Amino acid sequence: MDVLEKKFTARPSLRIAFDERQVQFQKIVSERIIRNKTLRTEGLVTIPVVFHVVGKSQSIATDAQLMAQLDTINKDYAGLNAGASKVPSYFLERFGKSGIQFALAQRTPGNIPTTGIVRYSTTRNSFTDSNENIKHTAQGGADAWDPNSYLNVWVCDLGSQILGYSTFPGDLPANEQGVVIHYQSLPGSTNTDFNGGKTLTHEIGHYFNLFHIWGDDNGACTGTDRVDDTPNQADANRTLRTGVVTDNCSQASPGIMYQNYMDYSPDANLVMFTTQQVARMEAAFLQSRSAMSSSLGATPVNLKKNDVSLKSITQPEQRLCTDSFAPQVIIRNVGSEFLKSVTIHAVIAGGNEVTYKWTGSLSTYTEATVTLPSLTTNVGNQELEITTSLPNSLPDEDTSNDSQVFNFMYYGPVAPPVIEGFEGIFPPQAWDIVNSDGGNTWEKTTIASKSGAASVRIKNYANDVVGQRDYLRSPTVNIAGVDSAFVTFQVAAATYNSGSTTNVAWDTLQVLISTDCGKTYTSVYKKWGSTLITRTAATRTAFTPTPSEWRKEKVNISSFVSKGEVIVTFMNTNGNENDVFLDDVNISTVTVNPNLKEAGFLVTPNSTDGAVSVQFYPHPAGLTGVYIYNATGKLIMERNISAGAVTTNVYDFDLTNYPAGLYIVRSVFSDHVLTKKIVKVN
């Protein structure tokens, strides 16, 4: 609950969403109770469990302790533990027995046999519930296995403050779903009050949407665990009890249920869930965890003799900039025999098939990277299918892992300008999105726009995974041979926190330029927090910009002209602040009149019947004014420019109402003067 409260404090909107989910969930539970449904009668479910043991020393948890822990949770949830006989007679009619059971994983997410106990060495002395480092290999912990297929249990040193913590159903991010327990809570540890393995029983209760039996109200008697057949209780019980115990919330016999797994009682006291707690957990399983019922995680791998798996397609990239490429794949031997050869087929939908025979030597569960002969693709969005067959020149005994399809795109470079208002299909033709994490990403929306009916947005407000990067990429644009190039766009953004808040991971918008088909990028624009927002007030709901809450941005990309072909990319880095919108993207170029480039100063047209443009190249820094005189030397027009205010290299005048004849244009700089003669006709 402390972990949950920290999230709510940081983001009050999460509390609102959590409470809304609980209200809806309570209706489901009530219906289940009324109909007296139970998994024990509907069919037991078995959940694959993987223990991630993370420590400087692996002696913190033996295999025997972990097996005893698995046995404990199975008996506790089935109501078959040795202490069940200690359930008082006055609580027997409430004694709940669940149809949820647990089994050690027998295969990894990659279908490799496992014991379900995976050990990791770390340089960290301990972990904490103030962050989720234990759940990430990069932070010294261990990455979760697929949370839809396994119950991830991390076993580690949590310091001296807590025994464990858990996620509730619906908590994000998904790859942090599971339970963390202190190794001292395992059966047989030296922590005499809490070495019966009941900590994991308790935390899995939270994992299935149970709350503390005392309602976390600090003795006020107004809190609730959302379960009707548990007595009201003032606060957590932390001492060994016997007999009837009353408090100011349950003042008469039978008193409080200190025997309940969702209390903090010493393990020797903990012997029961109630029937309605069981109904709540089973409803949570069916609503939020039911994918585990179809998981093969607890099913042993049936190893075939000759079986090759196409693990992945590693080439081509999502976007091609040439029409020819060599596919690259990773094959894995998942058969018991050494893999000596395999035939690999590659075909672009509607095209000719390429066949390649690989030879080598792979033992069971080893891999090889194979580069196939080149294929040529047509313009457009394409589908590449690669299939393996005939391992060791024999029929593949499991064809379910032989084929994969990969979608990619190829479009040639386009000429500028590229103007996109996101009114049609999304992504627009020749645009693409890079969303490596598979989470929230750029999407078309019609709830707001600067022009037209649509724009694009990325929903940072609803994305708790800070640091995720998502790319919206333009077509390849050929800007070779021009004098300058620019990117303009409309942006709208807000933040959840006020701009003065410190230690915030702000949403960040960058414009990146790639000159090598998206392999590398150079940042040319980067804004976040107060520099990015178009609404100054902190916004505690999902941001929708008003028509006035847009800002036009202009980015000079002229330094890339010599590179020729470029991809303009809008990259959002999520800070879980608020939504960012884009509209009216324009990738344009400027080519200067060759005569102007040579002369540096032109007045056109010459002669003119009225309109005339005074042009400079390059940008006329130091220009203080442009003046037009008639043949007698009389000043007839002027454009005075204050110091440092030169914003353009073109100044327009209109001589329509002046008589025909000769005129002098005089351009005055801070250190020199340029003049031109023009003729007005008619």
Describe the structure.
It is built from 7 helices and 36 strands. With 682 residues, the chain is mainly beta. The strands form 9 sheets. Strands 1, 3, 4, 5, 6 and 7 form a 6-stranded mixed β-sheet that branches. Strands 19, 21, 22, 24, 27 and 29 form a 6-stranded antiparallel β-sheet that branches. Strands 10-18-17-13-14 form a 5-stranded mixed β-sheet, with no helix packed on it. A hairpin with a 4-residue loop joins strand 13 and strand 14. The model has no long low-confidence stretch (mean pLDDT 94).
Helix count, per DSSP? 7
The computed structural class is: mainly beta
Average pLDDT over all residues: 94
Q: How many β-strand runs?
A: 36
Radius of gyration: 35 Å
| Known CATH architecture of the largest domain | 3-Layer(aba) Sandwich
Protein topology:
Blueprint lengths: L1 H9 L1 H23 L4 H4 L2 E11 L7 H16 L16 E2 L3 E5 L12 E5 L29 E6 L7 E3 L12 E4 L15 H10 L65 E2 H15 L18 E8 L3 E2 L3 E2 L2 E6 L5 E10 L4 E10 L4 E5 L3 E2 L3 E10 L13 E8 L7 E3 L11 E3 L8 E3 L9 E4 L10 E10 L5 E10 L14 E7 L7 E7 L22 E6 L8 E9 L6 E11 L3 H6 L1 E4 L6 E6 L6 E8 L4 E6 L9 E5 L6 E9 L3 E8 L2
Parallel strand pairs: 1-3, 1-4, 1-5, 5-7, 10-18
Antiparallel strand pairs: 2-8, 6-7, 9-12, 11-16, 12-15, 13-14, 13-17, 17-18, 19-29, 20-23, 21-22, 22-29, 23-28, 24-27, 24-29, 25-26, 25-28, 30-31, 31-34, 32-33, 32-35, 35-36
